[in-house]
Amino acid sequence: MSLRWNPPCTRLVLVLTMIVATVLTVVYFKGSNFVANIPRTELSSVNNLHIKLGNIQNAISELSWDIKERENEIQPQVEVRTKPSLQAQPFKKKIPWQGIAYRRTNGSWVADDSVCTEDEVFDRATLKTPAGNTPIFIHDVVVDRSVSKRLKAVGNWEPEVMYTAFEALKENKDHVFVDVGGNIGTFSLAAAKLGHRVISVEPYAMNTKRLCRGVVKGGFAGQMFVIYNAMSYVRETISFKVFPKEAAMTRIVKATNTKPSSDAVTTIQMNDLLEMFDIKSAVLKMDCEDHEVDVMKGAEIFFKVVDVRMVIIEWDKLYKNPETPYIIEMMERFKFKPYTIGKDAKPLNISEYNQWNIRNIVFKR
Fold first, then answer.
1. CA–CA distances in Å: residue 94 to residues 90, 99, 115, 199, 228
2. 8 A C-beta contact, residue 362 and residue 311
3. Chain segment 329-339, per-residue pLDDT in tens
4. Pair 39, 181 in one domain
5. Are residues 224 and 146 in the same domain?
6. Which residues form the domain of 264?
7. Which residues of the chain have pLDDT under 50?
8. Can you give the pLDDT at residue 1?
9. Does residue 212 share a domain with residue 65?
10. Res 113: pLDDT
11. What pLDDT score was predicted for residue 115?
C-alpha cells in the first residue's frame, strides 16, 4: 500500500476554497433580496460584482490545480514491497508438490524430491483395494513378470496381505502404516487410500520414482512419505542386485567398490524414523528379500517407543536363515504371537518357526 503525503500548500487551498464558498453563499442569498430592492439603474453594478466574484473563484480553482500538479512532482516515491519470488524448483517441469521423498544423510534428514519428477513415462495400472481404486505406476511387464504383470492384469498383489493389514489399520485411524520395502507401492498406496498416514521405505530409485508418482496422482501428498534409504542396523553404503526379469526381487548388497555405483544409497535404522515422524501406534510390513533380520536389529528403540500392533513379514526365505532366532526372541519379548494371514488366519507354534515354509506370516498382539 502506498502512503499519501499532504503538504501545507494543499491545506491552504482547502481553507481559501471554503472562504470563497461561504462568501458566494452569503452574496447569493442576501444579494437576491438586495437586487429585488434596488433601482434598475444600479443593477449593472451588482452584476459586475457577481462577475468579479466569479473571476476570483476561477482564479482560486486554477491555483488549486497548479498546486496539486506541483504536489505530484515533489511527492516522494514510496516503495511498495512484494513477497520475494520463490526460487525455481529443481525439476525440468514445474510441479505443485514438494516434501514427499526424504532421505537421511550425514546424520540429518533432507527433502529429496529429485525422484519425484514427471520427466519419465511410466506404465500405469489401477490398484484395487477394499477402500477403492487408486493409480499405481508399474514396471514394464517384461522386466517385472510377477508384481507389475499381475497389477496390470487384475489390479492387486497378495490380497491376503492387504486384507490382514487393513484389519489392523481399521481398529484405529491414527495407526501409521510403515512399509519397509515399499517397492512400487502396492500396500503403501492402499493404506493411504484407506486414509492412514504412510511411511514407505524404498531405496531402489526405479521403484521410488514410481512410488512418488503414485503418491501425487493418488492425491496423497502430505499423508504418505517416501524414505529414499535402505534400512539396516549399521550405517553403510549399499548397492543393488537386480534380476533381469524380476524387478520385484531386487535386493540390497554391500557396496564393495570404493566408488559406489550411481544407484548406491546409505542405510538407516528404523529407530531413525522417530527423528522425523511423531508415531504413536503403527502397523508394520517388511518385505526386504531376506534382509529383515538386519532391519529388526535396528528397531529396538522403535518398538519400545511406538505401540506396534502388527508385524507382517515375508517369511519364505527367513525360515532357513540362521539369524532368524533374533526376530523370534524379539517378537516374544514384545508380546507378539505368530499367525497365518488372510481371512482364515490360524495361530502358529512359535517354536516351529524354522518349519514355516509359508510366503507371509504375521505377528500381532
1. 8, 14, 14, 25, 22
2. yes
3. 999 999 999 99
4. no
5. yes
6. 101-364
7. 1-10, 12-15, 26-36, 38, 42-43, 46, 65, 67-97, 258, 260
8. 38
9. no
10. 82
11. 85
Q: HSE of 18 in the Cβ direction (CA atoms, 13 Å)?
A: 6
Same domain, 137 and 46: no
Q: Which three cell numbers stand for residue 327?
A: 526376530
- How far apart are the C-alpha atoms of 163 and 22, rounded to whole Å? 90
Give φ, ψ of 89 to 5 degrees.
-75, 150
Count of Cβ atoms closer than 10 Å to residue 223 Cβ: 16
Do 148 and 27 share a structural domain?
A: no
User: Helix, strand, or coil here: 126?
Assistant: strand
Q: What integer pLDDT is reported at residue 112 of this predicted model? A: 86
Instruction: List, in sequence order, every beta strand (DSSP E) within 182-272.
Output: 198-201, 224-227, 230-231, 237-241, 251-254, 265-268
| Furthest-apart CA atoms within the chain: distance in Å | 135
Q: Is the dihedral angle over the CA atoms 50, 55, 60, 62 positive or is it negative?
A: positive
In a domain, 244, yes or no: yes
User: Beta 360-364 vs 307-314: how paired, if at all?
Assistant: antiparallel
* Model confidence pLDDT, tens digit, residues 234-252: 999 988 888 888 887 787 7
Given this model, what pLDDT does residue 3 score? Answer: 35
Nearest to 147, CA basis, from 210, 201, 200, 101:
210
In one letter, which amino acid is 56? I
In single-letter form, the type of residue at position 355 comes to: Q
pLDDT for the residue 7: 45
